From TrEMBL:
Pfam families: HTH_1 (PF00126), LysR_substrate (PF03466). One of its GO terms (molecular function) is DNA binding. It comes from the Bacteria. Signal peptide: none annotated. This is LysR family transcriptional regulator. InterPro entries: LTTR, LysR_HTH_N, LysR_subst-bd, WH-like_DNA-bd_sf, WH_DNA-bd_sf. The lineage of its organism: Bacteria, Pseudomonadati, Pseudomonadota, Alphaproteobacteria, Acetobacterales. It comes from Roseicella aquatilis. Belongs to the LysR transcriptional regulatory family.
Amino acid sequence: MLALPPGLDPDLLRSFVLIAEGGSFTRAAQAVGRTQSAVSMQIRRLEEMLGQPLLLRGARGVEPTAHGQWLLERARRILALNDEIVASFRQPEVAGHVRLGSPDDYAVRWLPGILARYAASHPAVQVEVTCAPSNELVERLAAGELDLTLLSEGNEPPGGRVRWLWRGPLLWVGLEEVVRRRPLPLTLARGGCSWRRAAVEALEAAGLPWRMAYTSASLSGCLAVVLAGLAVTVAMPSPLPQGVRRLGREEGLPDLPDFAIGLLRGPGTPVAEALACHIEESFRTGEALEAA
């Protein structure tokens, strides 16, 4: 009788995906609730099982090898199927209507997976999603127009019920031929954006001349300008359009600070609390990050 091949532990794959996408063992360990050494051991076990190196440390952080990139695409699908199976056996807990706010960039990157899993486990809940910049969403929550909202660090109101979900680096992105222009052309959100403040403050501190060439309320709008070769922008660690690359010290740009994504609650209702707990758990276990 032929021996069966060893199975791949979803926990190992989840840690690998978090590291490959976030470029950091430390942040991956925080997301899965383990120590950094424990996550390193997980990756070592996975590499020993597959017989190939999967991750390399480089100037820009931890990046997947060629074998790691091949695995990354398939690991995402395995984890999505694993989570779908688990969610399909959960029983509905609450029913009703909940109003969720999110910046456009976070809605596109994280909400599809979160809402799909939530709908599978809470089919009697109707979720209404409103997309707007973080500062506007905070105002709508205060006005009672939302039950909870995702927001970028720097927009939280004093005394607000904020739970920080994720922290990672903010990155310069653009085309290499544009980054040498002076003044540096930028495309960023309007004045209330914390990413805009971080970018401008970093350039001012470094003494680099800049100009605001274009503004957009969403990252997709900024990336359209970047793809046209008209400006550079800032973004989270995530897959970028073909031709767009991460930029940094090698191109003469200053480091940008880390930033955080938070969940701000309004007055609690059972339905809103259930969704808030689901979002927090998705980020804690890494489910929210797997398709990002």
